[in-house]
Write a structure and sequence with these properties.
Elements: H1 2-10, H2 19-35, H3 40-50, H4 67-83
């Protein structure tokens, strides 16, 4: 159940092509995750279990974050924001 909630909110990150867009989406999504009782360990477990599937790949490579770095950047930013 909580995996579905995490996936539904994090799927919004698939269209993010810059650090600013990632920050904006995370600022919108994190309060919703917390309101649904999603904890940091649950988010970490989701990333561990689903890895590359957690952040859908962008097909438009112009002016975008490379697919190999996108999940790592999102995870770092998500962890920093969830700790606050």
């Amino acid at each position: 159940m909580k995996d579905n909630i995490i996936k539904s909110y994090l799927s919004k990150l698939s269209d993010a092509n810059s650090n600013e867009e990632i920050d904006k989406i995370l600022d919108e999504v994190i309060p919703k995750l917390k309101a649904n009782g999603i904890s940091l360990p649950q988010v970490m477990m989701y990333f561990k279990m689903y890895g590359d599937d957690a952040i859908p790949k962008s097909q438009d490579h112009r002016n975008s974050i490379s697919n190999s770095n996108k999940a790592q950047i999102v995870l770092q930013k998500l962890l920093a924001k969830l700790k606050n």
